[in-house]
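We emphasize that the prediction below concerns an isolated chain of 377 residues; any contacts that depend on oligomerization or on bound cofactors are therefore not represented. The input was used exactly as deposited, without trimming of termini.
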Amino acid sequence: MARDYYAILGVRREAAAEEIKKAYRRLARELHPDVNPDAETQERFKEVTAAYEVLSDPKKRQVYDLGGDPLSSAGGAGGGFGPGFAFSDIMDAFFGTATARGPRSRARRGHDVLVRLEIDLAEAAFGAARELQVETAVSCPVCGGAGTSPGTHPATCDMCGGRGEIQHLQRSFLGQVMTSRPCHNCGGYGTVIPHPCLECSGDGRVQTHRTLKVKIPAGVDTGTRIQLAGEGEVGPGGGPPGDLYVEIVERLHPIYHRRGDDLHCTVTLPMTAAALGTRVSLTTLDGAEEIELRPGVQTGETFTLRQRGVQHLRGVGRGDLIVHVEVETPTRIDAQQERLLRELAVMRGEDRGGIQVGPSPRSGGVFSKMRDFLGGR
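Result of the prediction step, given as a token string:
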């Protein structure tokens, strides 16, 4: 390996992409021809730029780490038919894919961005408008996405003459084969940037924080994704932006839990309230409401409030609110309460310890009997 690109940039071999970018920007400011016009510094600037081109590209970096040189004319390829000749060259020869394709554009579409947004149950049920802070790549304010210093322009590549690719004539067992490969000097663009923008290092974009307004439709749930077209990262070279996807994460509610568009909650009643009946006040998504529980209500019974759940995301109407009843048996009673309960057991004929296995012949069980005793037979 002729050149140590990591040493040229002064970074570790395991350096992250952001560390490599910072090192390049620092060196580019020091070695830029506008700052140091001497020939030795310009040559050093070319080395730094070539090192960054390789290490900032995951594919080129992988080739380099495996011992190849992705900037060589062979592209680091080896296919067993001689240096720089791969099986793809045979395919080019047979199927004509070696014809000139012309220079490729520097402008490429930006990446899509995924962010997660936490909302509460009411916002999920009825929808809301929220502001979202995101950090994405935007067009460089100095060069406007061109990647060149103000007042300068890209120059035609001297090596490929602006074609973006170089033809190679190679000998193989098939004879002479003409293949075309992207120009390693300009990367296939046909032009080079002799004076990169100091703000964006020639990329045409910079990272910045933005505030976006997001409209959350009614009925969303955890995992729902909202697409904001064109709000993702701006592409390199002033390319079009990708999309921004907002993934909803619904916070847990202290009272209600959600199943689809229905809401569920549990009401715990004292034994006496279950036997005598009672009214329970609920704070629903629509405000306070009361439900009446009949005397003798049992654990496991449910009561449904229609259209009190979450709005349907793709449709009309809403889910329901289902109230689950749980009767609580006291675990600690004083002497007077125990005496009264024993008297009740005697009066109900339940003091002899005869426990029936299976359903009670009388509907309602023990609480129904308590209701009969307290309210009359």
